[in-house]
Design the sequence.
């Protein structure tokens, strides 16, 4: 049996105040993981000179030191929101610019800003902690996020990835001095599987379009379009109805029942994916066709499990509010698919970092892939790689792994979000996913089952396949979320 190789442990000296030291240790360990290493933290000043890296208020002679900014830590301790524009473009030490907070600590440091505090704000979704504003689904809206209040901090650019590369650059000469092996290249955690990883995922919100409610919704949209004088919208709705009458009604099919298309297309490319399933409907926000869902989901589960696909839980309203309900639904779904359900994504992306993720950890989930803004593609936590979220109540990282959700079809297409054409959506999605390629990271791509019918999707079915093909052409590993998380945990143990 092949021996398991652990990531090398690098001694890191943390001279930050005691209250922030556990958070600093978590940040530095998180930054080292995608670089193929882990942190071995010491608080002993006598051992600082032998460290590979330091985080302290003053430079440690001979050791690359990240500045510890007292003002930043005071603001975090008080749990006050960062002032607007706190993140700015600053020199990174190699001539490039990076969005960071705060800047200009003085001379003698390896980087020109408190990299650890900057990363903590992003990785811990600090804006969610310090901002009370929520939308109708209980989510922090993008408009109230740190990205909206800091123009230099672009959600499409994973700033934490940049911080990790700065750490790599600071460590390189120091590792040579210590006689240690250099860090492996970006993406090495995936081994022979690929240069980076894309988790292919599908949320099963609605399984059948043409139900009584579906016809009623079409009638409502048509009447609204007539009242507003939107002729193209009227023609589109009438065309959808005609398509049902001619193409689906005689065959007893439906444009949302796209499982053969998805499975065959992925099988032809030698890739796998994850399907997130609602275990039960407990609230109007869980979905508008519960009767049809209950009737159709057994067949859907039979198809995807027979094809070897992972099934995850699509968390409902009860799963958001009650640990008991969450555990019940996880076990119930595990029983239906005949294997343990390891992953979850909440319906409407309703998870909150500091409230929901600790509950998922308690419920025994291996990973979550919910954290994203429905309004904008990009990197909610500032990174394009999996990580263990931090639990403030216990001042420790969770066992749970967060797999960043970078791109969702609804974000790109829905008129109340981005409202992009298929061509513009493809460009936006590809521009986001390429960040994972550059960093050798892993992110999740979400395409719902109802966007694989050529007519109903308005071209979005083709976007998915072209994104997948492009990722494979550039050496990406496209697989289920569970496979990618399992590999990440193995490589970074």
Sequence:
């Amino acid at each position: 049996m092949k021996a398991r190789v652990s990531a090398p442990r690098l001694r890191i000296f943390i001279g930050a105040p005691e209250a922030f030291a556990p958070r600093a240790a978590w940040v530095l360990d998180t930054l080292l993981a995608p670089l193929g290493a882990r942190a071995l933290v010491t608080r002993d000043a006598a051992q600082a000179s032998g460290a590979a890296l330091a985080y302290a208020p003053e430079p440690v002679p001979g050791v690359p030191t990240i500045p510890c900014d007292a003002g930043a830590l005071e603001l975090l301790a008080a749990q006050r929101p960062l002032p607007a524009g706190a993140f700015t473009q600053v020199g990174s030490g190699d001539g490039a610019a990076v969005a960071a907070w705060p800047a200009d600590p003085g001379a003698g440091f390896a980087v020109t800003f408190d990299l650890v505090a900057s990363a903590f704000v992003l990785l811990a979704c600090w804006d969610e902690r310090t901002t009370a504003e929520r939308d109708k689904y209980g989510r922090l809206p993008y408009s109230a996020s740190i990205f909206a209040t800091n123009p230099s901090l672009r959600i499409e650019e994973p700033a934490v990835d940049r911080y990790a590369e700065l750490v790599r650059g600071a460590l390189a000469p120091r590792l040579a001095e210590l006689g240690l092996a250099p860090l492996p290249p970006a993406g090495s955690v995936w081994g022979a599987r690929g240069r980076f990883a894309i988790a292919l995922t599908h949320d099963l919100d609605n399984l059948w379009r043409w139900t009584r409610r579906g016809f009623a919704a079409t009638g409502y949209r048509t009447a609204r379009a007539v009242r507003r004088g939107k002729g193209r919208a009227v023609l589109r709705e009438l065309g959808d109805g005609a398509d049902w009458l001619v193409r689906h009604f005689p065959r007893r099919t439906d444009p949302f029942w796209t499982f053969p298309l998805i499975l065959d297309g992925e099988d032809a490319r030698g890739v796998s994916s994850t399907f997130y399933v609602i275990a039960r409907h407990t609230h109007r926000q869980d979905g508008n066709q519960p009767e049809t869902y209950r009737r159709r989901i057994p067949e859907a589960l039979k198809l995807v499990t027979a094809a070897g696909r992972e099934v995850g839980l699509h968390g409902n309203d009860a799963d958001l509010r009650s640990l008991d309900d969450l555990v019940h639904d996880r076990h119930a779904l595990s029983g239906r698919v005949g294997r343990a359900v390891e992953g979850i994504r909440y319906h409407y992306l309703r998870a909150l970092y500091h409230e929901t993720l600790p509950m998922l950890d308690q419920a025994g989930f291996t990973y979550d892939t919910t954290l994203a803004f429905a309004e904008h593609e990009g990197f909610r936590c500032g990174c394009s790689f999996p990580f263990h979220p931090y639990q403030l109540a216990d001042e420790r990282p969770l066992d749970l792994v967060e797999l960043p959700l970078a791109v969702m079809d609804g974000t790109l297409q829905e008129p109340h979000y981005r409202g992009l054409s298929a061509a513009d959506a493809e460009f936006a999605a590809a521009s986001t996913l390429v960040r994972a390629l550059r960093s050798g990271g892993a992110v999740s791509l979400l395409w719902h089952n109802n966007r694989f019918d050529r007519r109903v999707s308005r071209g979005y079915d083709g976007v998915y396949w072209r994104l997948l093909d492009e990722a494979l052409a550039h050496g990406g590993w496209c697989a289920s979320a569970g496979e990618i998380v399992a590999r990440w945990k193995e490589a970074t143990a």
